[in-house]
Structures are given as structure tokens and as C-alpha cells.
Amino acid sequence: MKITNVRTLRMGAPANDWNWLFVRIETDAGIHGIGEGSLQYKDAALKNEIKEFGRWLVGQDPFQTEYLWNAMHRQVTWTGGPVTMSAISAIDLALHDIKGKALGVPVYELLGGKVRCQVPVYANGWFHGASSSQEYTDRAKYVVDEGYKALKFYPFGGSQVATPERIDRGAALVETVREAVGSHVEIAIDVRAQLDMGGAIRAAQRLEPFDIAWLEEPVGFDNVGSLCEMARAVRVPIATGEQLYTRWEFRALLEENAVRIVQPDICHAGGISELKKIASAAETYYVTVAPHNSNGPISTVASLHLDASIPNCLMQEVFVAFLPLYNEMLTEPIVIEDGYASLPEGPGWGTDLNEELIEAYPPHSYAPVRPWEPYYH
Predict the structure, then answer these.
(1) Which residues contact 132 (CB under 8 A, 6 or more apart)?
(2) Most buried of 70, 255, 259, 353, CB within 10 angstroms?
(3) What is the pLDDT of residues 360-372, one digit of tens each?
């Protein structure tokens, strides 16, 4: 079997200024594979990067996933970074889809088989439009009534330098949501690196009584030493990793032995080949994996296949507000009941893109890049 064509498909996502970008790889056996590399605000560059890789991929054997991954990662002097790694990720996912279809097995069978029959998920995006404590409470109760046993939100929005008022406001909102959903629902808090070191430590201390599942990206990912210093200074679990790529970047984080949860993104960190290796590395440090996923439907399905095959999967992120469009775009829907996602059973991903529907969702035109704002704003 040989690769005959590599092309990209792009559509507007439910968010106002995001796009989803897919890659379709075709073969001379009539089998195609679908991958995803949706990269917020950079999909024009990503499209061209995939095009350049595609020129080399034509004529290659799609079964040789390990060789192809390493060839793409090492064939140029300048490698790494979000654009190149997202292109490699999207291609890697499509190659696994081809291989699974050709062999007549789900992708998770290619990864060693499943270690669980269902994947625990947590809800993100459930708070869309909420601006008051009561609105957060109502939406949190609704998502829990829908069967979700875990949810995440962002109570500490603002500039990087924290104020007592901002810490108080964020902690009060977490307390309100905790009271609304009860003690048996997991609550994860994402900071998006929008606090300074002192503010992040104070926020973590204020959140201790609410038994949160984790505090995500309390400070920037750029300085592993400082991040891990902060993690050792607090008692709540710290999670990070959505902006890291490959096992080499995660190695530096894991060797500090301070972060309890890593969150690689299957569309950006190297695809399913690399996330399997990152998960194995994390397992040696007794660190769990909760893959980041704010992307489209193939990202979500591929992440579930990964989760099924790794013993240290904590739970999978799902944007519940995106689910209706996910299932419109997929030939087989993502089924979530009582807080667990069922595994697709068909070959490859067990589902495919309804490509004829993509034109109904034209890509968004991006607004001009917003200038950096000083921390005191």
C-alpha cells in the first residue's frame, strides 16, 4: 500500500474565531485516513506545513508509522514548535486510521488493546455565557444532572498579577459551585497561567477546603523549575502540559517529580504515537494523564482510543458545548452516558467525517492579533 494524496479540510468551529483543520490521507488501496491538527489562530501556517510534508509522504508506506513520525520530526534542521508538531500529529492520526481500517481493527488495538471498556470524561465549556454566581450554579447543576461526574472552569480570569479581590472572587465562585454539585463531583480549576507565583500559591491555599481535582497551569509552562517549585509549595494537585510537545519536553517536567497530572494534546504533542510514549514515561513517575482537548471531533475520538490503551488515564476533557456539532460531523456519534464515553468499535477510529457537511461551516476570518497588555491593566 502506498500514499497517493495528502490534503487538508478546514471548517469554522463553534467558537467565534477558531477553525478546525483535518488532514485526509489517501492510498492506492482505496483506504483513506482522517487526522486532526486544529491549531487555534495558526491554521493557515499549519495548512502549508502539512502540504510540505505531503509532498514527501506521497509514495510512502502508511503502515510504517514509527519511521514516518521520526522522518518528519528529524528530516529538517528546524523542528518542533506548534506548527510543525501539529502537522506531524495530524498526519500520525490519519496514518493510524488507515492502518486500523486496513487491518479491520480499532486504533486502540494497534496500541496494545484496551485496558478499560469506557473512558471517564470531564465537562468543559458548560459555563458558556455565565456571568454571575447563580448562572454558574444553574449550569453546573445542569451538567451534573446530565450525568457528568467531573467538570472544569476558570474562576481566576484577568491579568497575571493577582489582587486580593481577584483571589477572593475566584475562591468564592469555586465554593458556590462546590455547594451546588455536592462533594462527589470532581471540580478542576484552570488558571491558564494568569497568576503570578505568589497569587497562584495563595489561590491554591484558598481552594484546599473545596477538595478540587487539580489546579491547572497555575503559572506559565515555560519555566519548569518555577512551576514545580510552586507545585511543591501547595497541597492541591497541579496539572499542566497542554503546551508541551514530545516526550523530551515532558521528560524535564516529569524528572522534577512535582506535578501530579500531565495534559498532552493529541493534536499538538505528536499524535497518538507520541502520546502513548508520554503516557508510558508518566507512568514510571506514578503521574496520571488527562489529555487536553479543546479541538474538534477527530481529536476527541482519537483521544478516547489513547485513553482506552493506557493504564494511567485519569479522565478525558470534552467540550460539552461542541458535542452537537461533533456528532453532526461524524458518521458515528460520540456516546457519553453517566460521565463515561463508550469506545468506538469499528475499524480505525470507528467513525469518519461527514465531509460533505464541511462547506456548511466556512472557516472564520481571524481578527487582528491583539497587542500584549501590561500586567497592571
Answers:
(1) none
(2) 259
(3) 999 988 755 555 5
Number of other residues whose CB lies within 10 A of the CB of residue 107: 26
| The Cα angle at residue 325 between residues 178 and 279, in degrees rounded to 5 | 60
Partners of 106 in the β-ladder: 348
pLDDT (tens digit per residue) in 74-123: 976 788 999 999 999 999 999 999 999 999 999 999 999 999 999 999 99
The cell for 258 is 512535582
- List the one residue out of 311, 279, 274, 297 whose CA is nearest residue 361: 297
pTM over 0.90: yes
Q: Which domains does the chain have, with CATH numbers?
A: 3-104 (3.30.390.10), 109-360 (3.20.20.120)
DSSP string, 63-98: T-HHHHHHHHHHSSSS--HHHHHHHHHHHHHHHHHH
- Distance in angstroms (rounded) separating the CA atoms of residues 98 and 349: 9
| Residue of 34, 28, 4, 29 whose CA lies nearest to 95 | 34
**How confident is the model over 158-212, as pLDDT tens digits?**
777 788 999 999 999 999 999 999 999 999 999 999 899 999 999 999 999 999 9
Q: Strand 288-289 relative to strand 261-262: parallel, antiparallel, unpaired?
A: parallel
